[in-house]
Give the backbone structure.
Amino acid sequence: MANLTVSGHFVRAALCGAELQQLDTSAMLRRAAISPELLRASGARVSSAQFSRLMQVIWQDMADEFMGMGPRRCRPGTFATMCALLNECSTLESVLIRAHQFSNLFDHPVCMRHEPRGKDRKQVALVLEVDGEIHDPKHFFRESILVIWHRLCSWLIGQAIALDEARFAYPYPPHGDEYRHIFHCPLTFEAERTELIFDARFLSAPVIRDRPEMKQFLKTSPADLLARPDEGHSYTGRIRGLIGRDFSRPVPDFEWIASELHVSPQTLRRRLKQENTSFQEIKDLLRRDLAIYHLGKKERAINDIAHLVGFTEPSTFHRAFKKWTGMTPGAWRESEAPRIQDGD
């Protein structure tokens, strides 16, 4: 299954700190196999593997896991050291307590602090705390911390933590629509705090990862946590898996999808609404991502790609692709877009 793509906005946002320090960001992009020319398109997107490589390049070149955006420099290896300490914890709650203690060992800490939420204390808030000034004009620094912590916690306990709400202490940003596909929950902007809300039952979930698993995990994290959408246990991700990658064949209908997921069509519509999406949008975005994937494999003709992603007329595919990305399929392919390998 081809991976989901990452908006070009996040590529540009990840480089804000490097730009402030006047580093050669074009060279950084090329080392990550991302075309600077392609990135100029308003609807540019990259593969998750390309984005993961870019994050690793940024951390390596800047020697800063905060990417030049935080209140201080975060030396390489800080995240790995913290994770090694967390591996000794027994439950998610002890993970959050120890991580908060670890972060507060540094001057100008950046922490995620958990606290009960609501009168009945059945929810927990995971609150972002930043001591000091940050350079985060596109909100990427704060977004990335929320994403990393949500996905790290889910990985440690071996189950996806369903979010009840994500709240942000800033106005709805220009790229706010992307948040629907990141957090899969109700969103609130201009909140008092930046935080994630979820069921308190997850706090007692046991940590199931051992040291060899953590060692393997740290070979690619936290870059992978940011790059690869966390959809495995969401209805959105499960539907994408059921649809598959060949739209030249009839797409399963909504009733069949619901039966495979063991829910009624009415329940599935409600679940997708809670995840800020719809069956039609899932199909459209899957077509877009598959088209980008196949365009990166230059031996395949564009008309063949149109058929693979479910268009009977190449002209219709060209119009749809330009609507998705701001470029025609031919222009996308000719803009020095790097070849996308099967594993990307």
